Amino acid sequence: MQKIMRFVPLMILLLTHTFVSSFNSPYSLIYQYSFGNFSNPRGISIDPDGNIYVADTGHNLLKRYNLKGEKTGEVGGYGWGNFQFDQPFDVCASNGVEIYVADYNNHRIQKYDRTLANVATLSTSNWTDESKRFGYPSGVVISRLGDLFICDDDNDRILKVNSFSTVERTFGGYGSGTASLTLPKQVDIGPHDQVYVTDKDRVVTYDYFGNYTGSIGKGILHSPTGIGMDSDKFGVCDGDTLYLFGYNGKLLARFSNKDIIGTTIDQFNDIAFYKDEVFILTGTQVVVAKEAF
Fold first, then answer.
1. Is 21 a residue whose pLDDT tops 60?
2. Cβ burial 228-254 (10 Å sphere, 16+ → b, else e)
3. Strand, helix or coil at 68?
4. Which residues are registered as beta bridge partners of 206?
5. What are phi and psi of 182, to 5 degrees?
6. Which residues pair with 52 in a beta bridge?
């Protein structure tokens, strides 16, 4: 899973080296600091206390940092044990109690507590009801009501799982018309309990019960991956471009990999918001930028 700098005349922008987004918008992002040494990380999440969790996909690790960028813990390594991963694609720590990891090649969701102790595993590989199985989970998020939403890459759909590990419903799968997902990569939940899924070339939206409500970014997005929610907007990572949208679907800002003052981004993999800062997960590190307008 903030505000951005006030518009000032072009001459002042040139003198202060502050870049506004390449989209005609007053929004800007100002580099603050960066941290981490990752290998193609896919997911970032920040809990209410400011602990930052990164799914370091290439290193098969879950890493935790404080707001100073200091590492405070990690768990993982290649394998299929309770403390191992095979390509962790996403992490969710938004409720401040548990940490959920989408363990992609192990076809499971791993649950950890705040000490990074493993407390549960959700795997459906051996379930007799094939309609409720998932494979290659690429995204996971927990709602304020305690339900999990899992991005099922194997079946191009979303699963809603309740607190008793029961699959309540699936949606977005084949045969759903405009509600169908083609290449779902990540899932998140907005402030009004709407479900947002990054798909092939758009963000698809559903209500809390999986009913299709629309799509955002068609004709703008190319191959979106990470998505992060703020109180008044959300960010979408799309290769070398970051987009900010309002919850009404309006495009607020577009940032190329050179549009953030003080640094150049190799690629935008995922994004999270915390207070007035934006945490951008790149191909090798976390870049922290201040929003301004």
1. no
2. bbbeebbbbbbeebbbbbebeeebbbb
3. coil
4. 195, 212
5. -105, -50
6. 46, 65
In this prediction, what percent of the chain has a pLDDT beyond 90?
Answer: 84
CB-CB neighbours of 115 under 10 Å: 8
State the average pLDDT for the chain.
91
pLDDT given at position 260: 92
Phi and psi torsions of 129, nearest 5°? -85, 95
CATH of domain 10-292: 2.120.10.30
> Distance of CA 271 to CAs 45, 130, 177, Å?
8, 33, 29
Q: Per-residue b/e over 62-99, b at no fewer than 16 CB within 10 Å? A: bbbbeeeeeeeebbbeeeeeeebbbbbbbbbbbeeebb
Asked whether residue 2 carries a pLDDT value surpassing 70, the answer given is no
**How many Cβ atoms sit within 10 Å of the Cβ of residue 40?**
14
Each domain of the chain, given as residue ranges in start order, spans 10-292
Rounded Cα gap, residues 280 and 285, in angstroms: 8
Q: What are phi and psi of 177, to 5 degrees?
A: 65, -135
Specify whether the CB–CB gap between 232 and 247 falls below 8 A: yes
173 or 91, greater pLDDT: 91
Q: Which helix (H) or strand (E) holds 118?
A: strand 118-122
Q: What's the half-sphere exposure (Cβ side, CA atoms, 13 Å) at 36? A: 32
Instruction: Give the residues across from 236 on adjacent strands.
Output: 227, 243
Instruction: Give the Cα separation of 156 and 169 in Å (integer).
Output: 14
* pLDDT of 23: 52
Strands 167-171 and 108-112: unpaired
Q: Do residues 243 and 268 lie in contact, with contact meaning Cβ atoms separated by under 8 Å?
A: no
d(CA 205, CA 190): 10
Q: Residue 25 has what pLDDT?
A: 67
